[in-house]
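dumping this here so i dont lose it again. seq + smiles for adenosine-5'-diphosphate
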Amino acid sequence: MIIADNGPGISEDIKNKLFDPFFTTKPVGQGPGLGLSISYQIVVQKHSGVLRCESEVGKGTEFWIEIPLHQVGKSVKSNGFQLPTDLQ
Ligand SMILES: Nc1ncnc2c1ncn2[C@@H]1O[C@H](COP(=O)(O)OP(=O)(O)O)[C@@H](O)[C@H]1O
Ligand SMILES: [Mg+2]
């Protein structure tokens, strides 16, 4: 899945910190800086997926989200129900 905008874009130095918890370029009190770090935790750490940012300053930004349909070598638990290994 790709989400794209035609906003200001993101410079290289900011791009390196994008997924850090509490990183924000918004004024004090306006940005908790948690949106992308929580997204990273969910997509990459929880679902073993891919979260990538492509951006060009002045043109816009794209976020790539890939989530595997099947987890390899990892049990997926939800609501206490666990799928048999061959269905995971
Ligand atoms: N689509 C975007 N275009 C430009 N900059 C972005 C975009 N998404 C995120 N950023 C940058 O990444 C920072 C961190 O984003 P986020 O984790 O959502 O926290 P917050 O929105 O609270 O600042 C933002 O402050 C901004 O500098
Ligand atoms: Mg945000």
